[in-house]
Amino acid sequence: MTDGQRSPTSDGQIVVSGLTKQYKNVRAVNNLSFTVAPGRVTGFLGPNGAGKTTTLRMLLNLVTPTAGTATISGRRYADLTDPLRHVGAILEASSAHKGRTGVNHLRVICAAAGLPKSRADEALELVGLTPAAKRKFKGYSLGMKQRLGIAAAMLGDPRVLILDEPANGLDPEGIRWMRGFLKNLAHEGRTVLVSSHLLSEMQLLADDVVIIAAGQLVRQGPVEQVLGSMAQGAQVRVRTPQAEALTTALKAQSATVTTDEHGVLLVSGVDAPTIGKAALAAGVELHELTTERPDLERVFLELTAGKAGIR
Ligand SMILES: Nc1ncnc2c1ncn2[C@@H]1O[C@H](COP(=O)(O)OP(=O)(O)OP(=O)(O)O)[C@@H](O)[C@H]1O
């Protein structure tokens, strides 16, 4: 199939199907299936050793699967006619010849990939590195190296981006920049698949998540749906000097009430207005009433509990 004949429905879509990788003693990835849609940022999450990097490496034809397939726009990476123009990837912190300038590093890649060298300047501009274009790589900070890696991934103006831990080593400003940059790429209709350990960051960045543990799929879907599917649901934090009286009143309404180590009541099964009304009716004084939605970190820990990542 040529680019012109590509099926519009599969364009930019990543499909992982029954993917398995058996190393000598470890089944790093075990019958894994998921899809990644264009126009969205998808967070690829899992504890250490869950199989994320192995999966991404199989997607990019750097590791041969034991079984199953991984395709991008309906084709295996190895079968893409012009892979750099289709897929941009960063699998580890960017490395370059120490004495080479940022712009020359990118020009070397352009030359090898048959891309015009003007793309090097455009990609540097895209990641905000133009002021450092002529500085040598050895003088780059970790954050600048990460940006250079992204610039390299963007050289072919790819419609699919695959990034393994791109926020590693970035300071808060760098992380905020990365978030805006990746969201914008998705907004342009590109497919953005990002693995990360930074769950709070993923909650801000990702539209969808794919969560794996011990090489297997645990959950996939839109972030909101995954958060909403948790049995625990929202809980309300309540501080009161009359905890016992309020607990009795809430239990009468079938609420579940537990107490944390600071004596704060954690209430589920009823919402904040219901708790406020019950407190008023019981003559109980309230010092705090806060609804806490489950966050990705809590959900992740709950979903992956007992599925030790390190194998
Ligand atoms: N080349 C290899 N040979 C043998 N075992 C390997 C190889 N590569 C990975 N593994 C094992 O496969 C499992 C999955 O590793 P992988 O690096 O894919 O996990 P990960 O989710 O990316 O982890 P982390 O978050 O720690 O980077 C681990 O148990 C790892 O030790």
Architecture overview:
The chain is of the alpha/beta class and 311 residues long. It folds into two domains: 3-228, P-loop containing nucleotide triphosphate hydrolases (Rossmann fold, 3-Layer(aba) Sandwich); 235-292, Alpha-Beta Plaits (2-Layer Sandwich), CATH 3.30.70. Helices cover 33% and strands 24% of the residues. It contains eleven helices and 13 strands. The strands form three sheets. Strands 5-6-7-3-8-9 form a six-stranded mixed beta sheet, with helices on both faces. It has a four-stranded antiparallel beta sheet with strand order 11-12-10-13, with helices on one face. A hairpin with a 2-residue loop joins strand 8 and strand 9 (216-222). Helix 3 packs across helix 4, helix 4 (118-126) crosses helix 5 and helix 9 packs across helix 10. It is elongated and about 75 Å long. Mean pLDDT is 89; it is low at 1-9. It binds adenosine-5'-triphosphate (ATP).
Low-confidence region ranges: 1-9
Biggest sheet, spatial arrangement of strands = 5-6-7-3-8-9
Order of helices and strands: EEEHEHEHHHEHEHEEHEHEEHEH
Please give the CATH class of the largest domain.
Answer: Alpha Beta
What number of structural domains do the residues give?
2
CATH topology of the largest domain: Rossmann fold
Q: What does the main sheet amount to? A: 6 strands, mixed
- Using the alpha-carbon principal axes, give the shape: elongated
What is the count of DSSP helices, taking H or I runs of 4+ residues? 11
Q: What's the rounded overall pLDDT mean?
A: 89
Helical amount among residues, as a percent range?
Answer: 25-40%
Number of strands: 13
Give the name of the CATH superfamily of the largest domain.
P-loop containing nucleotide triphosphate hydrolases
Radius of gyration, CA atoms, in whole angstroms = 24 Å
CATH architecture of the largest domain, by name, is 3-Layer(aba) Sandwich
Family: Belongs to the ABC transporter superfamily.
Domain ABC transporter: 14-239
InterPro entries: AAA+_ATPase (IPR003593), ABC_transporter-like_ATP-bd (IPR003439), ABC_transporter-like_CS (IPR017871), P-loop_NTPase (IPR027417)
Protein name: ABC transporter
